[in-house]
């Protein structure tokens, strides 16, 4: 176990849970952020990395920007180059990045290989899509009078707190290379998730599957992003939506 932990992306949706759990376990972490806190830095330029890494024995690397390739690929390269020899790196990735053409996933895969080739001790955990991301997608799609979903596509969403829990365990343990994927407890069609969302939030919309063209949509239909052998998460999407919207699992108001 290495004292002094730096969490990149510690201000993000996942990172906040990781930082809270590390603190609760007696390991208050420093957080690298572009705008907040004492460790201001930017992976796109390398600014602030040196001071943030100073004396850090472990880096939990969660920072990512799907809209900016330089954050994930060049940013990870900058991080591993700036990290002193022996720094333990824990990297979070996404299930299926090695077999999926989505450009963001390709970049996550490249970042994985940068971590693997860095010469630093490392652990890489791949997780499936988080419940909150799926909910956000459905909230956006439900703004239209008809809720269109990608046909033939399933997801295996996982509870973000469980991903954080696993990452903390890994960060406080020994470097383990690529560890088993962490997938949500069930694989559910996009349409099924949409119906759950509508039911639990009291909305009414027709759910209409649309066959989307292209390699990326085909990869999602093929299930390249799923971890059927690792349905290890416990919380379901229905649990998550019910907790978020104050309704119980069967759609009635929670008391
Ligand atoms: N969302 C999912 O379904 C999912 C599934 C599997 C794996 N993951 C992975 O989990 C990680 C966290 O995802 P998330 O959903 O929690 O992300 P998020 O909420 O979007 O947070 C992104 C974080 O990255 C930081 N960041 C972005 N660009 C940066 C830069 N140039 N320099 C320094 N920090 C930067 C942001 O910090 P500031 O804004 O404070 O600078 C923020 O803390 C990502 O690596 C993602 O690939 C996500």
Automatic annotation (TrEMBL):
SUPFAM superfamilies: NAD(P)-binding Rossmann-fold domains (SSF51735). Pfam families: NAD_binding_10. Residues 9-132 form the NAD(P)-binding domain. InterPro entries: ComplexI_NDUFA9_subunit, NAD(P)-bd_dom, NAD(P)-bd_dom_sf. It comes from the Bacteria. This is SDR family oxidoreductase.
């Amino acid at each position: 176990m290495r004292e002094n932990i730096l969490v990149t992306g510690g201000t993000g949706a996942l990172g906040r849970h990781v930082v809270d759990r590390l603190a609760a376990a007696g390991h208050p972490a420093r957080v690298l952020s572009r705008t907040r806190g004492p460790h201001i830095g930017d992976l796109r330029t390398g600014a602030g990395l040196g001071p943030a890494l100073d004396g850090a024995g472990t880096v939990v690397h969660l920072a990512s920007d799907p809209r900016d390739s330089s954050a994930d690929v060049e940013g990870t390269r900058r991080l591993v180059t700036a990290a002193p020899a022996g720094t333990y790196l824990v990297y979070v990735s996404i299930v299926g990045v090695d077999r999926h053409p989505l450009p963001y996933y390709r970049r996550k895969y490249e970042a994985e290989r940068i971590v693997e080739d860095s010469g630093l001790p490392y652990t890489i955990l791949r997780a499936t899509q988080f419940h909150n991301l799926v909910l956000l997608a459905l909230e956006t799609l439900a703004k239209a009078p008809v809720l269109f979903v990608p046909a033939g596509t399933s997801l295996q969403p996982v509870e973000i707190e469980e991903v954080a829990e696993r990452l903390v365990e890994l960060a406080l343990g020994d470097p383990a290379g690529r560890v088993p994927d962490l997938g949500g407890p069930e694989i559910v069609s996009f349409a099924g998730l949409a119906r759950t969302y509508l039911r639990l939030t009291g909305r009414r919309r027709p759910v209409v599957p649309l066959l989307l063209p292209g390699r990326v949509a085909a990869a999602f239909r093929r299930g390249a992003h799923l971890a059927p052998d690792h349905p290890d998460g416990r919380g379901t999407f229905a649990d998550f939506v019910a907790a978020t919207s104050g309704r119980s699992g069967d759609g009635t108001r929670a008391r």
